[in-house]
Design a protein that fits this description.
This protein has helices at residues 4-13, 71-81, 92-104, 117-132, 157-162, 172-176, 186-195, 221-232, 251-256, 282-285, 304-320, 323-344, 369-373, 377-389, 410-424; strands at residues 38-42, 45-48, 53-56, 110-114, 136-140, 178-181, 200-205, 235-239, 262-266, 276-280, 349-353, 356-360, 392-393, 402-403. By secondary structure, it is of the alpha/beta class. It has two domains: 4-65 and 322-424, Aspartate Aminotransferase, domain 1, CATH 3.90.1150; 71-320, 3-Layer(aba) Sandwich (Aspartate Aminotransferase, domain 2), CATH 3.40.640.10. Strand 1 and strand 2 form a beta hairpin. Helix 2 runs antiparallel to helix 11, helix 3 runs parallel beside helix 11 (304-320) and helix 12 runs parallel beside helix 15. The longest helix has 22 residues, at 323-344. The chain is globular and about 55 Å long. Residues 155-165 have low confidence and may be disordered.
Length: 427
């Protein structure tokens, strides 16, 4: 595999961009190689600047559920682009997108569009604090909610990939209001709630953790959180930036039947363009300005291009309902991986939900952040590099989720499975 041009571009990028990339995981640091620079993408494939072709299981970190450059999404974007890129004024499309999300997701009665998942997390916490009059937040070790100061504490894949637990520049006063619980450990949450009774505004988590690898909630965990929050007057916030419209049209909350007070979205709802959103019960969302006193604003919020791509993507998902087939593809691929690992005598866990899945080089299932850190990341590095040489593009981190799209063909899946035995040997 020739990557001369990517190597040259990375060297050039480091002269003007910190670390040569605009998001740390793209640097390929944890897999001990230079990043690939992508020239184009189509369907299930990525094409780099050196002319190499890859079957893509990153999907721009989740948004590309229909594959890259989907014909209808591109057509709608071209049509919208001719009308203008941003107006700084309301559009009908914003209403339509909010109506679709409210109609699809059980917990959402009102929705506010923003520009990223990070921005949505930040705003949701502000609203929760304004609504409850409390300051403290409970988050979970390994759950990532964007590059937001109060939430950059044991914040999942970003910090895990770089091998750092926190980020310099986050004031100690911010961290003091962020309490850490263990994912899938209800007792740890109850203990924090008891020790800080009447002070906790919200519990925030990914209902399906996707930023310490892919880790589903254990039976009863989400219901236990719901019951605790009800007893203590705490708002329950589901971060469905990754799982929303990905694991199910109604998100993970629809699968588990647990209704949070607020939800956060991104990725799929923008069809691959920058977007974020937060929503929830009407009485909570009416706290947001100009309806209420909690201020939040954004110059490009509700950008017509992101809205157009999102409307088209969600429309296709609703009409075609690809979720059963996506789940079958993912389950088949996971099964092939497990069979190959067993034959090779390699300890491997595949964990999946819908079209999200993860691979852990571990003898036991991974249920939380602590266990994720104990997995064999050196073996993952060898495995990743071998898969890449064979034309399979996986996330360049042992702590990121992988994604199957509607564009992945049977041939793509079989080719991926065929590459796996060699990658297990690190060849």
């Amino acid at each position: 595999m020739q990557i001369t041009q990517s190597t040259q571009l990375f060297s050039r990028a480091q002269q003007s961009i910190p670390g040569g990339v605009n998001s740390p995981v793209r640097a390929f640091k944890s897999v001990k190689m230079n990043p690939l620079f992508i020239k184009s993408a189509q369907g299930s494939k990525l094409f780099d600047v050196d002319g190499n072709e890859y079957i893509d299981y990153v999907g721009s970190w989740g948004p590309m559920i229909l594959g890259h450059a989907h014909t209808e999404v591109v057509r709608k974007l071209e049509e919208t682009l001719r009308k203008g890129t941003s107006f700084g004024a309301p559009t009908e499309g914003e209403i339509e997108l909010a109506e679709i999300v409210c109609g699809a997701v059980p917990s959402v009665e009102m929705l506010r569009l923003v520009n990223s998942g990070s921005e949505a997390s930040m705003a949701a916490l502000r609203v929760a604090r304004g609504y409850t009059g409390r300051d403290k937040i409970i988050k979970f070790e390994g759950c990532y909610h964007g590059s937001v100061d109060p939430l950059l504490v044991q914040a999942g894949s970003g910090a895990m990939t770089l091998g750092i637990p926190d980020s310099p520049g986050v004031p100690a006063a911010f961290v003091e209001l962020t309490l850490q619980a263990k994912f899938n450990d209800l007792a740890s949450v109850i203990k924090l709630a008891d020790e800080n009774s009447g002070e906790i505004a919200a519990v925030i988590l990914e209902p399906v953790a996707g930023n310490m690898g892919m880790i589903p909630p254990e039976h009863g965990f989400l219901q236990g959180l719901r019951d605790l929050c009800d007893r203590e007057g705490i708002l329950l916030i589901f971060d469905e930036v990754m799982s929303g419209f990905r694991v199910d049209y109604g998100g993970a909350q629809n699968i588990f039947g647990i209704i949070p007070d607020m939800s956060i979205f991104g990725k799929v709802i923008g069809g691959g363009l920058p977007v974020g959103a937060y929503g929830g019960r009407q009485d909570i969302m009416l706290q947001v300005a100009p309806a209420g006193p909690v201020y939040q604003a954004g110059t490009l919020s509700g950008n017509p291009l992101a809205v157009a791509a999102g409307l088209t993507t969600l429309g296709i998902l609703k009409e075609e309902n690809p979720y059963p087939e996506l789940g079958q593809k993912t389950a088949w691929l996971s099964g092939e991986f497990e069979s190959a690992a067993e034959s090779a005598g390699v300890a491997l866990q595949t964990q999946a939900m819908g079209s999200m899945f993860g691979l852990f080089f571990s003898a036991e299932p991974v249920k939380n952040y602590e266990q994720a850190l104990k997995t064999d990341t050196e073996q993952f590095t060898r495995f990743f590099r071998s898969m890449l040489k064979q034309g399979i593009y996986l996330a360049p981190s042992a702590f990121e989720s992988l994604f199957v799209s509607t564009a992945h063909s049977e041939e793509d899946l079989e080719r991926t499975a065929t590459a796996f035995p060699k990658a297990l040997r690190g060849e």
